Amino acid sequence: METLSKRIGSKKKSTISTKPTPTTVAPATETKPAPSTATVTPESSANVQKSYLALVIDDSAAIRKQLEIELRTSGMQSDFAESGEEALEKIADKEYDLIFLDIMMPGIDGYETCGQIRKDPRYKKTPVIMLSGKTSPLDEVKGVLAGASTYLTKPVKHQHFQEVTERITRWLNEFGKNS
């Protein structure tokens, strides 16, 4: 017989006695893990959406509105600038997860704006998507040289926009600031 003592309160003592009792052991059975109802794979992890903030820089109100709707559909929040100068002021005060940048704007153009954005250490790895009506491969090369991550031709087609944002979202989920 085994005796356990335990102090309860400051002065009282309580004693509990335990006797081993015979038990029956059931034969071992093989247990299988319960089937998983959700599996996260690299392909499906893109569907786990974090809320990202995009800056859209374009002098066209129609393009800004289109991208606002597209980004909302993708589960992203958006902020807007109508010029490169306004965009540089905004990024000085706030951090964005991705940037959509028109090339042809009044004041400083998209190439120069992109170069200035890339000078800020917070934006070295931030995806910058150039937007342009120009379809020349030379324009795409100039965008990449300025620091753009990818290029979308205007008018932006819904399917192509969704493909690009899905790819960027996967990258942000895996390598971005919030991961």
Automatic annotation (TrEMBL):
InterPro entries: Bact_response_regulator, CheY-like_superfamily, Sig_transdc_resp-reg_receiver. Residues 53-169 form the Response regulatory domain. One of its GO terms (molecular function) is DNA binding. The modification 4-aspartylphosphate is found at D102. Residues 15-35 have a biased composition (Low complexity). Residues 36-46 have a biased composition (Polar residues). Keywords: DNA-binding, Phosphoprotein, Transcription, Transcription regulation, Two-component regulatory system. It comes from the Bacteria. Residues 1-46 are annotated as: Disordered. GO terms for biological process: phosphorelay signal transduction system. This is Two-component system response regulator. The lineage of its organism: Bacteria, Pseudomonadati, Pseudomonadota, Gammaproteobacteria, Thiotrichales.
